[in-house]
Design goal:
This protein is an alpha+beta fold and 156 residues long. Helix content is 47%, strand content 21%. It is built from four helices and seven strands; from the N terminus they run H-H-H-H-E-E-E-E-E-E-E. A five-stranded mixed β-barrel has the order 1-3-4-7-6. A two-stranded antiparallel ribbon has the order 2-5. Helix 2 (11-30) packs antiparallel against helix 3 and helix 3 packs across helix 4 (58-85). The longest helix is centred in the middle third of the chain and has 28 residues, at 58-85. It is rod-shaped and about 75 Å long. The N and C termini lie far apart (76 Å).
Length: 156
């Protein structure tokens, strides 16, 4: 029971504890995009304000945590969403890259299909490809993977 009284007597440390626990839950479960991140930052800033004596009393501390959480959410929501959605573009780590395959339909800049490992895959020509289309049955090389679309070019 002494630990409960310790945190009730020292509001700043309770806010730092709430901040740390919220941040750990955010990182481990929610993946740095949920509201606990904003609450953790607001609790930390409020803890600093309480420890320096700028604010006192539970009512004002709770109000400051709420206002700061809303403000931080408004400011950081869009940049964090952009960070999460910023992909590296085409995948260069696939074992399909470099494979010579046969086109199962005409492949152009807008689309087509190739046959790889017994499966027809969606494909499109690379922007730097020297031809406009690869005819059905011609060989081509996979140079990148973008989602479930293979980026191909003519086979040398």
């Amino acid at each position: 029971m002494d630990i409960v009284q310790y945190f009730l007597d020292d509001h700043a440390r309770l806010l730092f504890l709430l901040s740390g626990v919220s941040f750990i839950i955010e990182l481990t479960i929610m993946g740095l995009g949920g509201p606990l991140l904003f609450f953790a930052i607001a609790s930390f800033i409020t803890g600093i304000l309480v420890s320096t004596g700028v604010i006192t009393g539970w009512e004002s501390e709770i109000l400051v945590v709420g206002v700061l959480t809303a403000t931080i959410a408004i400011v950081l929501w869009r940049p964090l969403k952009n960070l999460q959605n910023s992909g590296s573009g085409t995948d260069t780590s696939s074992d399909m890259i470099g494979q010579i395959v046969q086109s199962s339909s005409e492949v152009s800049n807008s689309g087509g299909t190739i046959r790889y490992s017994g499966i027809d895959w969606n494909a499109r020509l690379d922007a730097d490809c020297s031809v406009d289309t690869i005819a059905e049955g011609q060989r081509c090389m996979i140079i990148a993977v973008n989602g479930n679309v293979m980026i191909v070019t003519t086979a040398n």
